Amino acid sequence: MQIVMNVELVALVSLAASFLLLTKLHRQLSHMIEGRIYLERSQNWPVGVHAKYRASPKELMLHIASFGLLGIAIGLLVYLEQQLLPPLIVGALALVVFYLLTKEIRRNFPIEEARNRIFFEKQKR
User: 41 falls in which pLDDT band (50, 70, 90)?
Assistant: First the structure.
């Protein structure tokens, strides 16, 4: 029972730390969208308006699953010193989910860029 609690604790810490990374990623994606729009419309840039990248619900779920599984894999590696198969299986599953997460971000980025372009057009008028 103690091992389950320890693995859960490591998974929760990993997940909490991952949200700091998620915040930084979304800030960088927002700056990227803003930069791409600014290059096209530098003369007509609305004052005080900034781009914002919003994650899709699927992206958030994949993020939670990916880093939760990563935390579980790390916890299993630490607490199951001699048994490598369970952490390897969970780690491989975490990699698959992380790949799906990157695909979702690549799919969502043009959608958010288009949404921000429409927002900038409305602000310009």
Answer: low
Q: Quick check: helix, strand or coil at residue 52?
A: coil
Q: Within 10 Å of residue 62's Cβ, how many Cβ atoms?
A: 21
pTM, entire model: 0.79
| Across 14-33, average pLDDT | 86
Say how far apart CA 54 and CA 62 lie, in whole Å. 15
Task: Report the run of H or E that residue 108 belongs to, with start and end.
Answer: helix 85-124
Measure Cα distances from 72 to 22, 31, 39, 96, 114 in Å. Answer: 19, 33, 43, 15, 37
SS3 11: helix
Q: How confident is the model at residue 11 (pLDDT cuts 50, 70, 90)?
A: confident
User: For 118, how many CA atoms within 13 A lie in the half-sphere containing its CB?
Assistant: 6
Supply 75's token pair: 């916890």
Distance CA 88, CA 27 (A): 32
Residues 26, 53: Cα–Cα separation, whole Å: 6
DSSP E strands in 1-125: the ranges are none
